[in-house]
Amino acid sequence: MSINMTLGQFILEKQGDFPYAKGELSRLLRDIGIAAKIVNREVNKAGLVDIIGEVGSTNIQGERQKKLDIYANEQFISAFQYGGECCIVVSEENDEFIHIESEVSKDAKYIVAIDPLDGSSNIDVNVSVGTVFSIYRRKSVDGKATLDDILQKGVEQVAAGYVIYGSSTMLVYTTGKGVNGFTLDPSIGEFCLSHPDMRIPKDGTIYSINEGYYTHFPDGVKKYIKYCQVEDSKTNRPYTSRYIGSMVADIHRNIILGGIFIYPITASAPNGKLRLVYECNPIAFIIEQAGGKASNGYQRILDLEVTELHQRSAIFMGSENMVNKAEEMMACFSPQQTKRNFEGTMVIQ
Ligand code: AHG
Ligand code: MN
Ligand code: MN
Known about the structure:
By secondary structure, the chain is of the alpha+beta class. It has 9 helices and 15 strands.
């Protein structure tokens, strides 16, 4: 039986796409793959050992942290400490960014933003969770990297990816030359190329949104949901509603089958819920590289100004034609009108 190319082999082969590459990005991606395998091992035994449950501390967004959130965060950070290619980590689980100051990291050029465990509330009920990562090159050339090095637009990402810990575990990533997916073969402990050149269908029949918040949605979103539900055989409507509550899992399914994922501004989350730096931008990069579209309802996600580490954004992403239709519905109501729907303030750039 032939064995598919492993993640390590693939990364090395693709290094040739970047003529001046010295292998640093390759090593960083390899380190992420190794940490993902360790996190996978713990996620798999979450039901067996006393590792589930809340630690009790609260992160900067006021959310309760689970033990596995913290465990995953530590694994990725220590992979960067030993790896030597990353100078700063921005993590959902840390209020401030972290300088990596190990001996081997003196000349590190890369900044990593990470959501170590996405969908962590699903751990307790054995539903898929994920990891999301985004990689930037630092802008400054010497001294310690600073906040200015981090606050780059999504369009500046050099690589991004996610890991889905699901019925099988997969790592999907892009370096701006398409998207490739690798499935973990537990028998050899390697991620093997299983989904080369992933392309999201231009159209789909799945919409993913937490409809429980319907009354809190902007009018444009309500209009789009109604559009999805109308009977129309020419466009295969009504569409199917699917919402797991782990963004990575919802996105992964939509990339393969076609669909749209929406987390809009809501009355209680007036700037959206998902975080721009380590959730929206990396997934937007992947979606675009797979031939899809990612927007905040009005503008391309990857072009948004980044002003804060834990900045939030509304997000509409997936199959291009579906996102275009949702934007068309959003455009029926001016952003100012949308803003007036809520007591909170919405940032429209
Ligand atoms: P995290 O576990 O990293 O905080 O992310 C949870 C996110 C995302 O994965 C998911 O799509 C969304 O929160 C679900 O939020 P709602 O429960 O508000 O729908
Ligand atoms: Mn998340
Ligand atoms: Mn998380």
